[in-house]
């Protein structure tokens, strides 16, 4: 007889890796195309020499470096095994009863409903606006006495839509102070809005707001798993209580510190990615696609029922993109030649005739 497992877990989708297409261009995971800088690779190699020793469970050096960089106290900073681990820990520190509610826009980051269910809480998805953005008024209206946690993904993955500081603050003002609001800023480094929505600045004087950022996207360390939270010291302390011990490993900590030191060079790269993203959007709009403006390193194609077939057809053309159910397809901005390969597929007359008709 097999052991008894929580039956409610059966409804959580098991991760299905994208079809393996050796040699195909991968525009499916919002990664950067360039490997670590030499200084970062060196820090990783040096850390590997000490692999027999446990890492610093408090990530003291990394948190101090982040605190200095962000002009906050060390007590305001927590790190996690990717910011996705912090998402799960945030549910753990806020939700205790199955009636406790986690509110988020939908479609948004696919981890939100999963970590909510793993945490035995109730997911409350609020549909996006017709413009593929968070419906902040509807989200405020969906708050109940059971709401414990709200995820706001800004820019939104997978649609790229983004709110400026004014609109974010208006929403925060509408949320009761006992509800924890998480501003998930995984794509912060790609933002170029005039009304700059810097969560770390926005959350000063707002103890119920926490900001999530990651080294996986613009900093190019997706394979090492390190993200961070900036929040009120009491919330940070709670995160430390539920943290899986040593889950931010020695290589990840060393690489993150070295990447912060090399940030000017790393963040320079975001300008090229943004230029490519805009070039892709223009070409797609010209071919007849609907493409909401994006402030991240990807574009969103709301292809509805066609999404899965579009993903298949793109893979046949050796470009892997990410279809999401019957909502749409997300395409990461890669290197120019990779994006050209995608655009050649996407703008071919037989493709536009089949999917945009
Ligand atoms: C990629 C992503 C993350 C987290 O990535 P990690 O690799 O776990 O740090 C978090 N939120 C959003 C919206 C993302 O797209």
Strand portion: 15-25%
Taking all residues together, what is the mean pLDDT? 96
What is the helix/strand order?
A: EHHEHEHEHEHEHEEHHHEHEEEHH
Secondary-structure content class = alpha/beta
Largest beta sheet: what is the strand line-up?
2-8-7-6-5-3-4
**N-to-C span:** 53 Å
Hetero compounds: pyridoxal-5'-phosphate
User: How much helical structure, as a percent, in the residues?
Assistant: 25-40%
Main sheet properties: 7 strands, mixed
Provide the gyration radius in Å. Answer: 20 Å
Count of distinct strands:
12
Uncertain spans, ≥5 residues at pLDDT below 50? Answer: none
3D shape:
globular
Total helical segments: 13
3D architecture notes:
Its EC number is 2.6.1.57. Its cofactor is pyridoxal 5'-phosphate. Keywords: Aminotransferase, Pyridoxal phosphate, Transferase. GO terms for molecular function: aromatic-amino-acid transaminase activity; histidinol-phosphate transaminase activity; pyridoxal phosphate binding. The modification N6-(pyridoxal phosphate)lysine is found at residue 217. Helix 3 (83-94) crosses helix 4 and helix 10 (263-286) packs parallel to helix 12. With 357 residues, the protein is α/β, with parallel strands linked by helices. The mean pLDDT is 96. The protein is globular, with a radius of gyration of 20 Å. It has helices at 38-48, 60-70, 83-94, 111-118, 136-141, 165-174, 199-202, 233-242, 250-261, 263-286, 307-316, 336-346, 349-355; strands at residues 25-26, 77-80, 101-106, 122-127, 147-153, 180-184, 209-214, 227-230, 298-301, 319-320, 322-324, 328-332. It is built from 13 helices and 12 strands. Strands 2-8-7-6-5-3-4 form a 7-stranded mixed β-sheet, sandwiched between helices. The protein has a 3-stranded antiparallel β-sheet with strand order 9-12-11, with helices on one face. Strand 5, helix 6 and strand 6 form a beta-alpha-beta unit. Bound molecules: pyridoxal-5'-phosphate. Pyridoxal-5'-phosphate (PLP) binds next to helix 3.
């Amino acid at each position: 007889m097999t052991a008894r497992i929580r039956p409610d877990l059966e409804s959580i989708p098991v991760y299905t890796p994208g079809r393996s297409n050796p040699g195909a261009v991968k525009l499916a995971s919002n990664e950067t195309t360039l490997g670590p800088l030499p200084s970062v690779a060196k820090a990783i190699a040096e850390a590997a020499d000490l692999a027999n020793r446990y890492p610093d469970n408090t990530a003291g050096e990394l948190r101090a470096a982040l605190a200095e960089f962000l002009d906050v106290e060390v007590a305001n900073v927590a790190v996690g095994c990717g910011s996705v681990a912090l998402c799960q820990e945030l549910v753990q520190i806020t939700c205790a009863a199955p009636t406790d509610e986690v509110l988020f826009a939908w479609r948004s980051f696919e981890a939100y409903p999963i970590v909510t269910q793993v945490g035995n809480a109730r997911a409350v998805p609020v549909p996006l606006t017709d413009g593929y953005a968070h419906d902040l008024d509807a989200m405020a209206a969906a708050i109940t006495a059971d709401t414990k946690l709200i995820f706001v993904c800004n820019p939104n993955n997978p649609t790229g839509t983004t709110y400026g500081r004014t609109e974010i603050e208006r929403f925060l003002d509408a949320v009761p102070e006992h509800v924890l609001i998480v501003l998930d800023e995984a794509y912060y480094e790609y933002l170029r809005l005039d009304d700059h929505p810097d969560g770390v600045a926005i959350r000063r004087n707002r103890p119920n707001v926490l900001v999530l950022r990651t080294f996986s996207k613009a900093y190019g360390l997706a394979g090492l798993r390190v993200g961070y939270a900036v929040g009120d010291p009491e919330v940070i302390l709670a995160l430390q209580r539920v943290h899986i011990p040593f889950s931010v490993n020695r290589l990840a900590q060393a690489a993150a510190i070295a990447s912060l030191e090399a940030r000017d060079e790393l963040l320079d790269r975001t300008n090229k990615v943004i230029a490519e993203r805009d070039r892709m959007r223009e070409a797609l709009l010209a071919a007849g696609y609907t493409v909401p403006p994006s402030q991240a390193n990807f574009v969103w194609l709301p292809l509805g029922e066609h999404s899965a077939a579009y993903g298949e057809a793109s893979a046949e053309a050796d470009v892997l993109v990410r279809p999401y159910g019957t909502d749409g397809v997300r395409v990461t901005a890669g290197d120019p030649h990779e994006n050209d390969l995608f655009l050649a597929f996407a703008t071919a007359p037989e493709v536009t005739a089949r999917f945009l008709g």
